[in-house]
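Render this sequence as a predicted structure.
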Amino acid sequence: MSKKRKVRVKKSGRILLVLILAVVLGVFALDYLDFSRLSEKKIIPKEKPVEKKKQPQTYQAKVFMVGDALIHWGVYNDAKKSDGSYDFKPMLEAIKPISSKYDIAYYNQETILGGASLGYSSYPMFNSPQEVGDAFIDAGFNMVSLATNHTMDKREQGVLNSVAYWKEHGDVVTSGQWSSEEEREASIAKVYEVNHIKYAFISYTIWNNGLPTPAGKSYLNNEYSDEKAAADIAKVRDQVDFVIVAMHWGTEYSFRVDNKQEEIANTLSNLGVDLIIGAHPHVIQTVESINDGKTFVVYSLGNFISDQNDVDNFTGLAFEVTLNKYVDINDQITNTVINPKAQLVYTTTTPRGGVNHDFKVVPYPQLDDSKLRGYNTYYEKYKAIVNERYPDLTWGLSGEG
């Protein structure tokens, strides 16, 4: 090979080497620059999530209550249809738009729902069609007191029939009649819940019309004693926010609260009862907050529907309270019964041939003189009775709006 050729080869080799070095250095430079840029970026630390401050919580359940379903012959005869069945729903059609709006809707089933097999009967030994219960359930009532002075009117079988009927409607809270001691114990200790509020419900009567329950079967009708109430309430008081007790007490046809009612109310309040709902007098009585606001007492709601054929007995009290549960930021709970509201209701009828027909329960504001002559005067009379111990009571129910 000539010298000239050798020089050219050497020269080409150098050029190739230079190009390779240039490429390598270029790649290195690019990587360096990228790294430099990254290293120049500011590292922003992640912000810690802001902890939300715990807020107090308030839970509420509205309770609606009415008095006695006292089903005389006139009432169930008016509900009888041509096929022999009974329909009481039209009698409640003016109340249903109100009662169906509440979380808890209570009434007192004064007469036993013993069913057709025992024969229907009126005063003094009642037995009522079970369709009465159907009508109240249809109107939204879901809590029923069963312990009354008429519970044993059809003896043990009447109670067993009644209990069986209510078991078919397991979404309705009942108390006061059971088919066994085990069933009673389970019921007393049962915790119910609505809107995050836990409550217990117990029904007692101090009257039995001289028809005591058979020996060893006191579960058939829950007759009151201080000792029994103390034992019952102790089983459930710490498990619930509110204890509600229905009391069948008082003096029949008296607007005045008697000493025994006051004595029992204070006993129950000291045992931890928050709300007492009274029945038996068949007329309305006052309401009261006792024990520094610890317990609210409705002494008597009077009759809700009956055929006692007197304005005092045809007039009943519809009442409302709110169960208020307040939980502070430290999870401390305060439970109070607040916002009591009242309305009067009246059973209208159409007399024909000396017998009442067309029974219908209506709020007093829906009355006029054709339905009850002088209804405004009666309204003021009964309001004064209810207001006696609670003059700041609000008149007009939430559910009426």
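Summary. The chain is about 30% helix and 25% strand. The chain has one domain: 57-400.
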